[in-house]
Amino acid sequence: MPDAILEADRPFPPGDYPVLVVGSGPGGLQTSYYLGRAGIAHAVISADAGPGGMFRRWPFFQRLLSWTKPYAPADRQSRAFERWDWNSLIAVEPELRGLQAEFMDGSSDFPSRPEMEANLGAFADRAGIAVRYGCTWDSTRREEGPDGTRFVLMTSDGEYRCRHLILAVGIAEPYSPSPPGIELAVHYADTRAAETYAGKRLFILGKQNSGFELASGLLQWASRITLASPSPAKTSIETRSLVGVRARYVQPFEDSALGGGVDILAAAIEGIVKVPGGLRVDLKRSDNGLPVSLEADEVIAATGFTCPLRDLPALGVATFGQSRLPAQTAFWESATVPGIHFAGTITSGASGLKKHGIPSYSGAVQGHRYNARILVERLAETGFGIVHEQPAIALDDLRDYLLAEATHGPELWHQKAYLARVVTVSPDDGIRDRGILPLAHVLDSDGPDAVAMTVEADGQGAIYPVVYVRRAGKVEEHALEPHPLNDYEGSLYRRSLGAILDLVAPGASAA
Amino acid sequence: MATRDEIADAIAGMSLFADLAAPQLMGVASRFEEAFFPEGAKVLRQGISGSAFYVIMDGEAAVVVDGERRAVLGRGEFFGEVSILLGEPPTADVIATRPLRCIVLAGTVIEPFLVEHPTVMFRMLQAQARRLRNANRLRS
């Protein structure tokens, strides 16, 4: 009975668990890893057949948008290396760190999709993360009992009960708008092999990275490519952030500028109709409202994905935006249903301050891997009474410690103006390192005097450290100067930060 | 949750966008992002730089200066523009007093947006003039 043996080997049968994690992409794996480190019993279920989440299938052209630099100026097993490695999950054990570099063949600093999948699979394997694969979450209900709320998940394998539900199910459900004739288009998720577009006139609806990824990959195949959406396309080089089309997909812009068979339109789609020999796409220009029509053989809707939250909105989980992201607290808990938490790309729904229009990078592994660690620390403290270590810092060390964090701290670099290194100062307890916390939490909560150090960008090209000082419940912001090499450990920064720290920790500048 | 179409429909009825034709409304709707704030959440923070321009789609927010409530804003009203236009941090907290849905435009893109949409700029100027007149009335 091999099937029966297999079934017996599957971990986490239906039942009661303190914490249930749904998903086995990077967000689910990272969360399970830290739950395990904290000693919190939990189950992980996943509809997939193995680890990797979206990277089991996408990106379509099999090359990531996120880099790992194997020969960066930091040891691969060090925390500092994380700043140069956007793709590995993070860990306490050196042997589990920086795994992505191990799986790269030297052809690009952007790993291929299979290399990323191998990296995630190796992490799951070596960290011993158990997942009940092939278990699909179907629906949810809430039960109120004498000891509080339980969430009950009906799955393909039976019912799971938990006090804390952590959803790491990605932003993975194809979304298409609904103009007339949209059924004549296929979604990005259903794009066919590139060579089948040979000689075709291709219309791509959407000007995000997925649209430009297809356009770039099909330049050599399609006879003509048109991309359209209501607002003008911007590149990440123009926005000086990850907002906009990434530099890897910039070729269609150049082709368009040179009149080379690619057209990029700011226009809203009115409809798609069948005509002899193909399809006609009707558009209205955003600038002057004039109609534009064009013929195409194929229409692809590169219009993004939404969050597969099943029936959670009916349970009261508020969502927002076209991706239907759940509204979240600073610690990635549903803003409207306590006890439901999020990990992975969904954490981009906790948008933080978005200073100067620059979002968190929670939609990518290099951002959300830290969110998962902080989420577990928070859950351990509030749900299980486990308080993580908050070491004392000597007054003489405070200034250099914070400047080193601003210069090297990967959390601060990957989650600009979103995550902060936080220290508190109080007469009873001295100076304590509170770890990495969401900036919004530090600014909006009461507590002892504190200093929060971030790295921020102004969207115009400048990157600089910012120091937030909370004194007697009021917060002041102090931006330090940018440095041409992003090195904030020199004497100018020691002087500037020393003067600021003296406000809450007198004598810090004298070290 | 709102799609671009739904945002376009909603803002069509707001005085700030009253002069825009349908395709322009879609263009505007696709520039803004939607944001949700539960009751009690801070949207703008007094003295903290880098903030954005918000238009309320649904819900209610209070304008609070040094802990004192100065105004309550509702659907169709907007905030955040003063600090962006002056290049200074907000001089007030704005706090959701009921679950709040807004559309948001980053401060860094306000200037090109207003220059491209002069009728929106004119409506915003009118609203500012009204606020100034009311403030002067209170003072006199």
Relevant terms:
heterodimer; A: 511 residues; FAD/NAD(P)-binding domain; 3 domains; seven-stranded mixed beta sheet; six-stranded mixed beta sheet; 22 strands; 22% helix; globular; B: 140 residues; alpha+beta; Jelly Rolls; four-stranded antiparallel beta sheet
Describe the model.
The complex is a heterodimer of chains A (511) and B (140). Chain A has 511 residues and is α/β, with parallel strands linked by helices. Helix content of chain A is 22%, strand content 27%. Chain A folds into 3 domains: 11-171 and 307-384, FAD/NAD(P)-binding domain (3-Layer(bba) Sandwich); 182-303, FAD/NAD(P)-binding domain, CATH 3.50.50.60; 395-510, no CATH class. Chain A has 11 helices and 22 strands. With 140 residues, chain B is α+β, with helices and mostly antiparallel strands. Chain B has one domain (4-139): Jelly Rolls. Chain B is 39% helix and 28% strand. Chain B has 5 helices and 8 strands, in the order ααββββββαββαα. In chain B, the strands form 2 sheets. Chain B has a 4-stranded antiparallel beta sheet. A 4-stranded antiparallel beta sheet of chain B has the order 2-7-4-5, with no helix packed on it. In chain B, a hairpin with a 2-residue loop joins β4 (61-65) and β5 (68-73). In chain B, α1 (4-12) packs across α2 (22-31). The longest helix of chain B has 22 residues, at 118-139. Chains A and B meet through β10, β15, α10 and β22 of A and α2, β1 and β8 of B.
Give the arrangement of secondary structure elements.
The complex is a heterodimer of chains A (511) and B (140).
Chain A (H helix, E strand, L loop, with lengths): L1 H8 L5 E8 L3 H13 L3 E4 L67 H14 L10 E9 L2 E8 L2 E10 L5 E2 L11 E2 L13 E5 L3 H10 L5 E6 L6 H4 L11 H7 L4 E14 L2 E8 L5 E6 L1 E4 L3 E2 L12 E2 L4 E2 L13 E3 L22 H20 L10 H14 L1 H5 L4 E8 L3 E9 H6 L4 E9 L5 E9 L2 E6 L11 H11 L10
Parallel strand pairs in A: 1-2, 1-5, 5-17, 7-13, 8-9, 8-13, 9-10
Antiparallel strand pairs in A: 3-4, 4-5, 6-14, 10-11, 11-12, 15-16, 18-19, 18-20, 20-21, 21-22
Helix pairs in contact in A: 2-7
Chain B lengths: L3 H9 L9 H10 L1 E5 L4 E3 L7 E7 L2 E5 L2 E6 L4 E2 L1 H6 L6 E4 L3 E7 L3 H7 L1 H22 L1
Antiparallel strand pairs in B: 1-8, 2-7, 3-6, 3-8, 4-5, 4-7
Helix pairs in contact in B: 1-2
